[in-house]
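B., you asked whether I could sanity-check this one before it goes into the benchmark set. Here's the sequence:
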Amino acid sequence: MAPLLRGRPPQQVITETYPTLPVVLADSTATVDLSIIAPAFNEESRLPRMLEETFDYLQRRKSKNDLFSFEVIVVDDGSTDRTTLVARELAKIYGESNLQVLSLKKNVGKGGAVQRGMLRARGKLLLMADSDAATRIDDLDFLEEKMKEIERNGCGIVVGSRAHLEDRAVASVCFVLIGF
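And here's what the prediction gave me:
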């Protein structure tokens, strides 16, 4: 299979075999404002809630700014459950141009899944969000404000953490927002 290319037009389901490595094109340009990458391993039960909350948030943003554009990329990291099938069904509801499903045949780990999703993304801003919905998606507003504060030369990275809430956290969660 051909390597994944950043900025490649969306497709409903792309299946990749390990160890194919993605390639970033030097001349790639953003075609949407925000890409949300959700790595998922055996998340068939939690993924629907996360996507419902995410799409509610994204639609509210779009209603305030009709020019706002986005995509969500679920990267199924070789799940043994129905994660890919559930994500495909949800893509029919949310729109196949808004929700892509990247299904990896073999588990490559969270880092590998995030990498493949990030390199597939077409957004000006890239957000990694865990698919268990343990962090509120509207925290993105705060991350974007911080991004604006640190952005230099068109690039920056903001990492959100719930480490200070560790005694209350039910899951380890991390948001990463990258601007290009």
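One thing to flag: The mean pLDDT is 80. Otherwise nothing jumped out at me.
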